[in-house]
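Colleagues,

For the teaching module next term, I've prepared a clean inverse folding example: a structure given as tokens, and then the sequence designed for it. I'd like students to try predicting residues themselves before seeing the answer, so please don't circulate the second half yet.
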């Protein structure tokens, strides 16, 4: 299917009449509604909501000159200036201070009684040697185990080399991926 002049004229006419893209596609045949939408955008046809509003605005403007005083009262440059004046003090604050908690609880972390004492001791030793990297420094080869509260300055990620196929280093894999049976046994 190609967009002949006749088909483009039909498209323009039907679009102007407010027909949907699906209706236009059905009328033209051999074209999808997405193709119709794409052609409408390529042709630069205005959005019908604005086209309909513009068409309705002309008769109202001729019939009622009341629209002009309202248009003059609508622009209010003073509030924009106040907003701009208020913006620089906000930008001077550190990014951490601008974070607003979403009120969502943190994801459940394994409690001390769910972690084997060996794994816990290993994690404590590893965290002393951790690289303590930020979110922006994480790569596919660095341990992504979070340490601390994300809302504080003391928050960091482990950063040690990851275990093959896992997102964490060997010590943190021992904490994160435990067999179900051993976790059940420790709860009792």
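(Answer key — instructors only)
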């Amino acid at each position: 299917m190609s967009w002949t002049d006749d088909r483009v004229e039909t498209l323009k006419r039907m679009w102007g009449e407010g027909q949907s893209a699906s209706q236009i596609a059905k009328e033209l045949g051999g074209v999808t509604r997405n193709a119709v939408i794409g052609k409408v955008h390529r042709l630069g046809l205005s959005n019908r909501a604005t086209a309909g509003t513009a068409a309705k605005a002309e008769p109202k403007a001729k019939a009622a000159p009341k629209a002009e005083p309202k248009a003059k009262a609508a622009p209010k440059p003073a509030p924009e200036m106040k907003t701009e004046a208020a913006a620089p003090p906000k930008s001077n604050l550190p990014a951490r201070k601008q974070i607003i908690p979403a009120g969502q609880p943190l994801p459940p972390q394994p409690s001390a009684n769910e972690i084997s004492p060996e794994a816990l001791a290993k994690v404590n030793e590893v965290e002393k040697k951790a690289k303590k990297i930020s979110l922006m420094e994480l790569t596919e080869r660095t341990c992504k185990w979070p340490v601390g509260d994300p809302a504080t300055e003391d928050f960091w990620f482990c950063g040690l080399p990851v275990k093959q196929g896992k997102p964490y280093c060997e010590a943190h894999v021992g904490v994160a991926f435990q067999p179900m049976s051993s976790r059940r046994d420790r709860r009792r």
